[in-house]
Amino acid sequence: MLFWQTGVRKGANVFNRKVDSDLIKAAKEYKIGFIRLAPDKFETTQRDFLLGNADNYPGLISKDLKVLKDILDAFHQQKIPVVLTMLSLPGSRWKQNNNDKDDLRLWSDQAFQKQAAKFWQDLAKELKDHPAIVGYNILNEPHPERLYNTADSAIYNVEQSKVQKNLFGFYSSMVNSVRQVDSETPIILDSSSYADSNTFNKFEPVSDKNVLYSFHIYEPFTYTNLKLNQGNFAYPGHVQSFDAKKVEYWDKDKLKSYIEPVKIFQKRYNIPDYKILAGEFGGHRCSKGLEHYFRDLASIFNEYNWHFAVYGFREDIWDGMDYELGSKKLSWKDWQAIEEGRMKKNYLPNNSIFKILREEWSSQLAGHSS
After folding, report:
1. Range 243-272 average pLDDT
2. Whole-model pTM?
3. Is the pLDDT of residue 112 over 60?
């Protein structure tokens, strides 16, 4: 837990198909404080990487485990700590690997929760002594609300008591299972409703001293999402709500107000600042004023002494959140050439958006404390 106790840690998310030496070296050069790594997109001969099959967990896939360990070794060689998160678990296959359908079996079938607990216990047994690992982030953006609300954009509007009871039972089971083989590695728990800060109103902490609590922020979504924004909204400024029912002015004060439930959660349960992680924040790099949005969010996180990680870093499937490229959209021709290996991405490390991130990464503690 010392890693998280000795200063605000500032990282980046890597949810790539491949993690190569260039990415790792660049992360080192930019002084990225930690990488939040999801391995679910890695190539595998099985249905699901590492899990084998989310329909029926057979045990860790040894070839996949070796791939993961090799990548963790490479990060450790550069002294870059890693938080490992999963997009899929037994009974909860990641939507993008599941024909764009939500897999909610984990939340309605105890058999899958037992399989998920076994998976994390198996994984913790393998990774507990790995020097790169500074956290197990059990499940990225859980959303059991979808059991009760399949359409409403603001899914946290469902009756949260039953959602949180389900989530608390699940997390308690995962933590207990991991702790049978690993008593020390910090465990990170995302709030529900895709890790929305709103659901911290009902979020209940588990009884374990080495746990951090995490939220993600992409609000206002109509601003950070290019398809919804269409160049109509800038930050700071007036932004239409996701349901198009109202227009609100978004600035630093509004951002603070949006994440206030996390502060209330801390006070209610006496949770210290070092146990709070903004596990993801970001926006499409073409969004007007994104550098101001990033500056304000980073300023808030620093003021609150919360750890944070931008989404993402050198993503290889999509360039919308590859801030190193600057704010101009890539042409389809260029993107195709990059995909086919005929052209390299033109990184612009001094662009105004990426510069904010570089300044934040450079301002934190150097080195790795486990």
Report:
1. 96
2. 0.95
3. yes
Contact 343, 332 (CB under 8 A): no
The pair of three-digit structure tokens given for residue 330, joined into one six-digit string: 């890539």
Angle, CA 307 vertex, CA 26 and CA 70 arms, to 5°: 40
Between strands 247-250 and 237-240, the pairing is: antiparallel
Q: Is residue 275 part of a domain?
A: yes
Residue 336 lies in a domain: no
User: What CA–CA distance (Å, rounded) separates 192 from 237?
Assistant: 28
Structural domain contains residue 60: yes
Pull the structure tokens for residue 20. Answer: 């190569």
Separation of first and last alpha carbons in the chain: 7
**What confidence tens digit (pLDDT) does each residue in 197-229 have?**
999 999 999 999 999 999 999 999 999 999 999
How large is the average pLDDT for residues 238-254?
92
Instruction: Assign 134 to helix, strand or coil.
Output: strand
Query: Which of 202, 189, 115 shows the shortest CA–CA distance to 163?
Result: 202
Q: Which of 45, 29, 34 is nearest to 11 (CA)?
A: 34
Range of 301's domain?
2-321+348-362
Phi-psi domain of 20 (left: phi exceeds 0; alpha: psi -120 through 50; beta: other): beta
Distance CA 210, CA 156 (A): 27
Each residue's pLDDT tens digit, 296-317: 999 999 999 999 999 999 998 8
Give me the number of domains the chain comprises.
1
CATH code, domain carrying 353: 3.20.20.80
- Within 10 angstroms of residue 300's Cβ, the number of other Cβ atoms is 18
Interatomic CA distance for residues 27 and 21, integer angstroms: 10
